[in-house]
Design brief:
single chain, eight-stranded mixed β-sheet, 8 helices, alpha/beta, about 280 residues
C-alpha cells in the first residue's frame, strides 16, 4: 500500500485503475482470493477514493466488452446488467443505470474528431466481467452513479490515447467531470503455473508499466516495445492509454498526471495493479 497523500485535483479529471480477476470475488474464489490480499486491499483503497469523489457517472473502459477491429464501442444503452454465472457464482449479479445522454455526447464527439466508434444500442446490454469485478468492490462503498461502458478494440495503442483525449474534450465544459475506470489486467505470463505459462517479458512489462504510472507521464505507455508488449500477453494497455489521454497526458511525455499506486502483484501469474490518478 502507498503511504502518499491523495493526489491533487487538476480540473476535476480523475480515474482509477483496477484489474478484473473474478477469483477475487469471494463467491468465485471460495477461499483462493486470500492469495491476492494486496489486491483486495488495493480495491478497498480504490473504493474509498470513489466514495470521497462521489462521481455521478463512471466511464468504465474495458477490454472485454464488444470489440471491433477498427473501432471503439460506446454503450448508448439504458442499462447494463450481468452476473458471474460463467465463473460459478450465478448469485453475483447486478444491474447499473447507464448515462445514455452522456454516452451519446461522447460518441458524437469521437465521430467529429475522426475516431472510429460504434454505438451499442440495445436497451439493456450484458455487463462484462471487465466492468463487473471492479464495480463489485466499488459498489460496496458508493452506489449512486450511472455508467458509460467504453470497450476498447484492436486499434493501435496510440489511437486509444487519442480516444482518451477526445473523451476529455467532450466533457471539458461539464462542471462535474465523470470519473474514469480503466479495467486493466497486466501481463498474463508471470509464472509457470499461470494461464499462459511464463515469458521473461511478462515481468519486464509489468515493471515498466508501473514505472510509467509512478512517473505520471502516462503517455509514454505508447512507447513500450511492441514485441515485449506482445510477449507479455496483456489486456490492459489500451484501457490505460485511454485513461492517459483522458487525464491530459500525451505521447511526448509533456503532460503529467499524479498517480498513487496502491498495490501490484501477480499471485496467479497475471499482473494486478490498483491505483488512483488525477489529471494534468
Amino acid at each position: 500500500m502507498s503511504e502518499t497523500s491523495e493526489p491533487m485535483d487538476h480540473g476535476g479529471y480523475c480515474g482509477v485503475i483496477c484489474p478484473h480477476p473474478p477469483i477475487l470475488l469471494p463467491p468465485v474464489g471460495r477461499g483462493r482470493e486470500t492469495d491476492a490480499d494486496a489486491t483486495r486491499i488495493g480495491f478497498e483503497a480504490v473504493a474509498d477514493r470513489v466514495r470521497k469523489r462521489k462521481p455521478k457517472t463512471i466511464l468504465c473502459v474495458t477490454p472485454h466488452g464488444p470489440a471491433y477491429r477498427d473501432a471503439v464501442c460506446i454503450g448508448t444503452v439504458e442499462s447494463l446488467e450481468g452476473d458471474m454465472a460463467a465463473f460459478g457464482a450465478s448469485g453475483v449479479r447486478f444491474s447499473l443505470p447507464a448515462d445514455r445522454a452522456l454516452a451519446e455526447r461522447l460518441t458524437a464527439h469521437l465521430e467529429r474528431a475522426g475516431i472510429p466508434v460504434v454505438s451499442e444500442t440495445e436497451g439493456r446490454a450484458p455487463l462484462d466481467h471487465g466492468c463487473m469485478v471492479p464495480l463489485y468492490f466499488i459498489r460496496a462503498a458508493w452506489t449512486d452513479f450511472q455508467i458509460v461502458r467504453i470497450s476498447t478494440g484492436f486499434l493501435s495503442v496510440d489511437a486509444h490515447l487519442r480516444v482518451g483525449a477526445a473523451l476529455r474534450a467532450a466533457v471539458g465544459e461539464m462542471d462535474e467531470k465523470p470519473m474514469m475506470l480503466a479495467s486493466a489486467d497486466l501481463s498474463h505470463v508471470l509464472r509457470d503455473d499461470g494461464p499462459y505459462g511464463f515469458h521473461p517479458d511478462g515481468p519486464v512489462f509489468d515493471r515498466e508499466v508501473e514505472q510509467i504510472l509512478r512517473s505520471g507521464h502516462l503517455g509514454l505507455l505508447t512507447k513500450l516495445n511492441a514485441r515485449m508488449v506482445e510477449n507479455a500477453a496483456q489486456c490492459g494497455l489500451r484501457p490505460l492509454a485511454v485513461m492517459a489521454g483522458y487525464l491530459g497526458c500525451d505521447a511526448k511525455g509533456t503532460g503529467r498526471a499524479e498517480v498513487e499506486v496502491f498495490s501490484h502483484e501477480g499471485p496467479y501469474g497475471v499482473g494486478y495493479l490498483t491505483a488512483f490518478a488525477t489529471g494534468c
